[in-house]
Amino acid sequence: MSSILLSNDIIIYLFSQAILFILLCIAFYNSIIILKNWDFNKTTSLQYKLEKKSYLVILIISFVLIIKLILFPYFTYSLDNLSNIVPGAMCAAGIVGANEYGEINLALKVFILFLIGVWLIINSLDLIEKTYPYTKQKYLFFIFLFILIVLETILDVLYLTNIPTQEPVMCCSIIFGVNNTGSKIPFNLSIPSLLILFYLLSVLVIFLNIQKKVLLNFFTSLLFFYISYYAVTYFFSTYIYELPTHQCPFCMLQKEYNYIGYFIWFSLFLGVFFSISNLFMTFFIKKELDYLFKLSSIFIVLFTVLCSFYFIKYYVINGVIL
């Protein structure tokens, strides 16, 4: 068996995923039954049984989805630890790029995290209403989410069983090397142009949050998410590492950098999530939630300040720009 699968971190991750998947399969089966027969206006014994069953199913789904939210940072932490046994890898960057399944698996996990957040919000709104008006919507949403989680499970297996341990993989200095930075930044942007766009978009997202423009905010936030990835990787990360040749979105997750990467990436994730989730609310339950706009602005500001802090700190101490 591959040494990857014998790693303690991966064993814990796969075991947790297996348990959660079994619970989700049980929830999926019962969700189909509830969805097919649910009618709150009826006073039949079947409807009464469905309401009791729904409480249990919702409890299972909520438990699993919350654990999956916690499991994602553990997954990235596990990938980082695998760099100790995979030749050539210096951090999770080399592990993610070790085969063709790594990047798509990571992207799918992030997408699923967004959807889990949306489901939890819809569920909380449904439970506080006496007539459970969003029950059918949330079960339909869960079925879609379950299909994605099945795909995620398949990708997990394909990815982890195909990480080479005998052949060297590329390290982050090759993947994100400074020699060809220009060709990797989208729209052929230079670093100054990338930074201007980064700060303009952050202000625009906050402005649209204040104005509560749902559709425009959705697309602007997704663009901000995209541009922020490149701004952090190719500019701000060099100030976190205090080395102009070190550009990597993963090394900042390590202990040597006080795990600051987790705070940076999750503040970005939450800022964008709260910003775009109102479009899902409008689509599924025909309702906008003002507090989502406020939370989005708070996390966007936090993310921008965190990134800028390392640049300002380095410039104040050293008096130069990398």
UniProtKB/TrEMBL annotation:
Q: Does the keyword Transport apply?
A: no
Task: State which residue ranges cross the membrane.
Answer: 12-35, 55-75, 106-127, 139-160, 189-208, 215-236, 262-284, 291-312
Source taxon at top rank:
Bacteria
Q: Which keywords belong to this entry? A: Membrane, Transmembrane, Transmembrane helix
The identity of this protein, by name, is Putative membrane protein
Q: Species name for this entry?
A: Malaciobacter pacificus
